[in-house]
Amino acid sequence: MGNWLNKEPPPPMVLVPPLFDFPPLAARTRMLESSYNLLFGKLALKCLFEDYFEEARHFSTRIMLKPMDDPHVDLIATVSGPLDHKPEENIIGNALFRWQGDVGDPHTFMDLFVSTSDPILQMRSCSYFPKYGFGAFGIFPLILKERVSSEDYGVMGLRYGSGNLSFGVTLMPFAVKDEFPKSAWLVSKMGNLTAGVQYEPQYGSKDIAKYKNLINWSCAIGYGVGSGSPLSPSFNFCLELAKSSQFIASFYQHFVVQRRVKNPLEGDEVVGITNYIDFGFELQTKVDAKTSNNISDSTFQAAASWQANKNFLLKAKAGPRSSSVALAFKSWWKPSFTWSISAIRDRYVGNWAYGFGIRIENIREASYQRADPNFVMLTPNKEHLAEGIVWKMGKRPMLQADVNAGNFDGLPRELRPFNKIL
After folding, report:
1. pTM to 2 decimals?
2. Domains in the chain, please, with CATH?
3. Which residue, among 240, 201, 238, 186, has the nearest Cα to 218 in the 3D structure?
């Protein structure tokens, strides 16, 4: 009886919501891409600069669903077009049907893509063997309005990937002699440093696919800290010389912060919530005066996002020509529903334009914990409780020491870094 009366109250807890879109959909098809185009923070920056920023005076609708009885298949359908009817602009519809052999391995799959625009019908397939690190893939446009280049007849590729090394090559089976290969890359990671080089011949010119022509080569070096999981902060800085004509400097940082809040829907022990703040910056400068005038001498863009809770996301970005603000609301029903609105201001014209988006999804599951002992709001008398259990999945708990060491096996698949989902 005395022990019950003197029982210590539960420690103060902080809610841990899931990210709106994690892992990113692009991670499902990253085996079809050069690692050079995804590492160095490029995938995170692309999501930061593009997601929920709708085109001015346009709408987009995306439906991402999979059947309850067969989780190996799913369908993604999109419809986009202008808000006001214009004869020169058409409403575009796409659909992607995907089959994935192993629900836990997104790297071996086959999908069919249909569209109202080119390619009208396209098939993609990838087989990857994690034990050996080797993979093969192919992209084959089956129906096109017009086949102009060798790439229109299909692309095949081979790749190898490990924790510290990735290299690969893409080929065109119906290419002429001067178009071999289509691209090749080599990326290596040494501690926090990542360095890579990529070869992409410029087809269609008189000087075709010459290995000594520096305009066909790109190189990059990056410094990154953090795991890439939304539960831990990360930092990435990259310098790139693209095709010997553009110098690109980029920076991306993901913050995991705690905010005190009193939620009447939660217990008294819940005193705060975890917020996710992302910031990115990219500067591009032309370094070769002989290149095409289509490339401006210099341009930049900066963006930031703030996820206040599991329902609201606020984003903003700015560039030399325009600025944009986006607000998204997400309900975690099954399927989940996301509604977004973006406002774009063109500095040259001086007016505002708006875009709207709707998304319905049940492909990615929500991993929302109402009270996570790892995210205790530290107080002088509760500080020792910070070293608690993060997640309880299966037979063993997930500890903070595992997160710091990069071991995410105990975490839900939706909260692991995208490069750890194997």
Report:
1. 0.83
2. 10-420 (2.40.160.10)
3. 240
Provide the pLDDT confidence category of residue 75 given band limits of 50, 70 and 90.
Answer: very high
Q: Give me the pLDDT at residue 28, please.
A: 86
Q: Quote the tokens at residue 364.
A: 């990615």
Instruction: Tell me the helices (H) and strands (E) count for the chain, helix number first.
Output: 3, 23
Backbone torsion region of residue 203, taken as left when φ is above 0, otherwise alpha when ψ lies between -120 and 50, otherwise beta: beta
**Highest-pLDDT range among 4-8, 142-146, 359-363:** 359-363
Q: What whole-number distance in Å separates Cα of residue 236 and Cα of residue 285?
A: 20
Residue 82 pLDDT greater than 60, yes or no: yes
Identity at 213, one-letter amino acid code = N
Radius of gyration (C-alpha) of the chain in whole angstroms: 24
Residues whose CB falls within 8 Å of the CB of residue 240, separated by 6 or more in sequence, listed in order: 40, 218, 219, 220, 221, 247, 248, 249, 250
- Measure the CA–CA gap between 419 and 416, rounded to whole angstroms: 8
Strands 13-16 and 369-372: antiparallel
